[in-house]
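Q: How would the structure tokens look for this protein?
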Amino acid sequence: MKRLRVLLVDDHEVVRLGLMTLLEDVPWVEVVGEAGSADEAVAQVGALNPDVVVLDIRLPGESGILACRRIKAGHPQVEVIMLTSYAEDELIFKALEAGASGYVLKQVGNQPLLDALDAARQGGSALDPQVTRKVIDRVRQAERQQRQHAFHDLSRRELEVLALVAQGRSNAEIAAALVLSEKTVGHHVSSILSKLGVSNRIEAATYAVENNIRDALRGEPGE
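A: Here is the predicted structure in token form.
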């Protein structure tokens, strides 16, 4: 069985020793080296060609996040697992943006690190459960913001008209439903197409469905 080649990076020697003690009993892991700074880590990756770097996010001088970015830029095949005592949102997302495939909190025990290494061995990624929750929350928040922005330029009335267009209603049917004249509905439809940058009702309806217009209607109306 091919063993996973691991490089340990932490500025505290006692932490590196603890990690080595943990991993020496794992039959599918081989610790090939260690480093105490970002520069040492980058140099060791070039010299040792590890499969995975377990990298402390807070290092003296250059941060672990910048080290991760340098490692991934020069050696994209190397997986990086961030090991840290901090579950700060911005650190998490900066690490993931830098190319980290895992983010494990030191204080939760040894198993999450072993799980992350196993995931890296199988070509996957691993996040601590607390981190996963933060990622999911951030993604959902971004989706909500995107949907709100999708209809930002539309007035409340235009949203109502667009929702009915998305249902396949004709101008006459929309006029009856909203107690408007067909001419007024026609003006609203033209305005909607212009604001959304689409060419026809079908494209407008598709846009409305993809961006979940029902949620927009439940939110604050436009001006």
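DSSP finds eleven helices and six strands in the chain.

Residues 4-139 form a domain with the Rossmann fold fold (CATH 3.40.50.2300).

Upvote if useful.
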